[in-house]
Structures are given as C-alpha cells and as structure tokens.
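URGENT: need a sanity check before tomorrow's submission.

F., can you look over the Queuosine 5'-phosphate N-glycosylase/hydrolase record below? I want to be sure the sequence and structure line up before it goes out.
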Amino acid sequence: MDEVRATSRWVASRASHVSIDSSALAKVIDKTQGSIPKVEWDFEGIHYFDNGPLTVQYLFVLDALNFCFWPDKDLNYDHLALGLRDALWNDGSALDADRLQKYTVARPLPLEEERVRLLHEVGNVLEKRFEGKAANLVEACGKSAMTLVSLIAQNFPGFRDHSLYKGRQIFLYKRAQIFAADLWGAFKGQGYGHFHDVSSITIFADYIVPAALRQLGVLMYSAKLSDAIDTQKEILSGSEEEVELRACTIHAVELMREQMKLQFGKQVLSIDIDLWLWSWGFGPHRCPITAPSPYTTESLC
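Structure tokens as predicted:
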C-alpha cells in the first residue's frame, strides 16, 4: 500500500478542486485525545458470517460489487450485503464459482453490465487459479494484508483501482483493501482475518468518508465541486475531481494517523478510522468524537 500512500500524497500536493484544512484536522485530532471510537465491523447486523470459508466467499463477492449505488435511491450497500446474505441462507452454494459465471441481473442496477462482468470474472478466476474458493486466495497471502491486496490486483483485473491524474498513474485499491479489512473485522483478527501487517491498510476511498471529512471541515472543496455535489450532479469516474476527492481523503487520514502517533504516542489503524467515519456518515447532529448509534447510519456510497 506504499504506492497508495505515495500517489495520494502526490495528488493532494497538486489538487485544485479539493484541499485539506490543517487547522480543522488538528482540532479533530485534539478532540480524539488519541482514541478513535471502536465501531464493530457488523454493527448493523447485515452480513453473512459462519466463521468459515463460506464467509470468505461471501465477503469477496460482496466487495467485488461494492461500488456505485448512485443514483438509485432504492439501492445501497445494505441491500447488497443483505441480498447476498439471504441468498446464502437460502442456498449455501449460491456463490460457488461455477454459478457466479452464469448469473445475470434480474433488475436494473447502476453499471449493471460491469457488475455482471465482475461476477463472471470472480467466478472464472477463482475456479481456474484457486480451486473455486476465495479462502484459498486468502491462504496464499501468508497472513499479509499487503500480499493479499497484491494477489487480488494481479489475478482479478476488476479490482485494479488505478486512475490517471495529470500524467501520473494513481493507485487507490479501494475494494481489494476493503476485502482484507472485512476479513480482519469479521474474524476479529483471527483465522482468515489474521494479518501481521494490518496497519499497512489505508482508508478506503469511497464517497461516504470524504463526505464525513467535509462535515468535519477537514476537506474543503472548490466552489464548482461543492455546487456539483450539493446539487447531486454526477462526478465522473476518473475525472480530476473524483481522483482528488479519493486521494485527498486517503492523505488526510494518513496525516491524522501520523499526527496522532506524534501527539499521543498511539498507533491508530486506518480500518478503525474508516469504520468510525463511515458509520458517522452524514449525521451532523451527532458528535463526531463519540460512538455513533448503529440505528442512524446512512449508507449512501
């Protein structure tokens, strides 16, 4: 993930649409007193978990499809997680590699062709290279989150989260890192979720977290970008605005982690910061330095 950190820092130093307010960041850090509220991985109770390899299969499929729920107001991440969970409850073979290669979409979805393509890709690669099991992919990483992200990017093109920004390739790896984080959270750092380098994972550059950082005053947007977001206009994938939003989010959290270590002598995980900011979401009525209520979370990314 060094490439993610380095290229995000490079974007932040050249960004024209998004900036990081260092004074606001310092205030947030001071209020934490070096302690991020602990939010449980499945605080909403929406995920499948059986403490075994089927959970790994579920999480890999879930994270393959974890993108772009906008502008469908009737579809969000919760629906995806619950839908896949219920499919497994009804049929334990629903996410087998051979079946993933045959699925089509039963209802209109944002970027439905890409979602179907990813399902087929996941099923095909798992079958050809990992005996059909995402658990075998995880076992091949040697308990290293960095190696797992690298293996995913090497074997599954749909997880190669790269963008071109001002002539330079930028690496973000949102969904590959989320998979490692989901394993760590679901299995509580044990078994399939044990990684000796879990601290290497960065925050996940989606759309809830920058919104939360904007609420806190840490991220500042240009007038043009603010207007586009406030009026719910589409921010095109791969555009300068989108790359800056995602990269500056990563860099802001890296600055937060570094400063918290210097100021309080504590190593804070990006996973914990991500869960805290994501669960806090768009709730300006809630204090950002207290544990959020799981019943008021909005899943809008």
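My own read: The first helix runs from residue 2 to 12. Residues 2-282 form one domain. If you see anything odd, call me.
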